[in-house]
Amino acid sequence: MLSKYWRHWGLRGFAGIGLGLVLSGCGWNTTQSTLNPAGPVAKIQASMITSSFWIMMIVSAVTFTALVVAVIRFRARPGQNGLPPQIEGNNRIELLWTVTPAIILALMMIGTINQSFAFGKIYPATQALQVDVTGHQFWWQFQYPASNVTTANELHIPVGQKIELILTSADVMHSFWVPRLGGKTDLVPGRTNYMWIEASQPGIYHGQCAEFCGTGHADMRITVDAEPPARYAAWVQKMSHPISVPPKINTLAYAGYLDFAAVGCSACHTIGGTKYNGAIGPNLTDLSGRLLIAANLIPNNLKDREAWIHNPQAVKPGTLMPNLHVPHNEVVAIATYLGTLK
Fold this sequence. Notes:
Structural class: alpha+beta
Strand content: 15-25%
Helix content: 25-40%
Order of helices and strands: HHHEEEEEEEEEEHHEEHHH
Number of strands: 12
Radius of gyration: 28 Å
Strand order of the largest sheet: 3-2-1-5-8
CATH class of the largest domain: Mainly Beta
Number of domains: 2
CATH architecture of the largest domain: Sandwich
Largest sheet: 5 strands, mixed
């Protein structure tokens, strides 16, 4: 009887576990994983996840062990009639299973609250590099007040320094999330939120908007370029003195520079060092140095720049960048010009 019971339910249990493993997937993408931290904020948050996981595993192990022991030891035996002895009203046992979970939850709560206050601390400009982050449908704007630099989608930060992110939204709710550097913080219209991050080592860290914000939400990505302090200082210097007007001898790039205004691109985009100062779309001052374009969706090469200018909706459904139906020769010229911006 017992062997039949275990065979029936045991097979179901193992089948359920196997199905769960298949559905959860077997791969682990470390490029955007909370469990692969690269900064102090992310490391503390990962340690909280890990400690909570093991506490729950221990509780589960104790619970299921007690259940198995109870099922085997106190099972109904042949010839046994009536109910087994009841433990209702046993104050010691009831106190044990009431107080123990309360203590475990209290310890987890104390650690969570303590770290939440640490993560919520607002650092002044004297203690951290401040960056104003504005979420748009569907791209990111980064402004550095101390150096009067503005860029888009690719956040440059120096390694080993606290970065105070001042978060606002220009339209709907967004959420800033770079898993290897820190948790999520919402960007709410009409409100300013704060979070700080820090990278412990140089590298490229990927993130994305974590709050559904419209059709292009899934393609609203973030790239963080954590650089050694000297390299970061060189980037700031380059952004402060951009080379944005190609020499006239380079006829194709110079033609693209003129076409950029002629077809209407300059009405939306700013390019430092030129007369183009549109405020609707991303700042393109350092475009040639970016790894990706279209809010980090496609590679930054001539072919993909041409495809993006030719028909933005075909590349990124939901984008608010209009199709201006630019002639092919002008598309090539503009894409070539954008590849010179540095």
